[in-house]
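mind reviewing this fold:
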Amino acid sequence: MKAKSIPLALALGVLCAVPAFAQSSSPAPVPPQADSPEAIARDGIAKLLQALKLFVDNLPQYAAPEIDAQGNIVIRRLNPPTARRDTPPPRDDDSLPL
């Protein structure tokens, strides 16, 4: 009976030592987390503000209305649109085919 109790005692001792050994080791590394909710919110707000700035920059701006000598109401545009390249540039008279 003593012969059976020795391996059982050794097995019990090993099983009891394993949890103590596991607890003494350093904790498992935490996988890198995604950005925090605050960082995501800041990025979202920054993108919204940039979109709003682009929207405001593209709105046409006009000066105060004026009345000219003929009685017409003139509203001048402060930021004229850029020249469009939809139409081909005008040709010189010399370059026309005969």
